[in-house]
Amino acid sequence: MAKTTQTTPKQAKGISQTKGEAVYYATGKRKTSAARVFLRPGKGNLVVNGMPLEKYLPTPTSITKALSPFAVTETKGMYDANITVSGGGKIGQAGAIAHGITRALLVIDSDKLRAPLKKAGMVTRDDRMVERKKYGLHKARKRGQYSKR
Predict the structure, then answer these.
(1) Is the overall model pTM greater than 0.90, yes or no?
(2) How many domains does the chain have?
(3) Which of 14, 30, 133, 148 has its CB 3.0 to 4.6 Å from that of 107, i.e. a possible disulfide?
C-alpha cells in the first residue's frame, strides 16, 4: 500500500506569516551595500538598523532616494518597514534600501506595481562599481605628470 501524504500549498517567495499578518521580504543592493527589507501593512514607520530612517540617513536627498519607490507607486504610509543595511557608505546604502523596497513591493503585487517601478528605472539593479586601482598609477586611471625631459 502506498502512503498518502497531504501537502500544503507552497507559499510565494518572500512572504511569511507572523502573528497572522503577512511580512514581505526582499534584498536590495547598490555598490558594496546590501539591504534586507521587511515590509508589513502599517502606518509608514521606517526603521533602519534600529533607528528612524530620517535619523539614519544624513541628507534629505538620500532620504528622498530611499523613499522613491513608495512615491512612484503611491503607497507612501501604507507599509511599515524594518530594514537592515550593511556595507558601503550612506549614499550607497540609500540606493540599496530603495532597491530592496522596490523588490519587496513587487512581492506584494507584481502585476499592479511593476509597470510604474520599471518606468522609473527602479527594478533593475545598478551594477556600477568602483574601478580598482592599477599598479603604476595614482588611482584607477590617473597617471603621474608627464615629463618631457
Answers:
(1) no
(2) 1
(3) 14
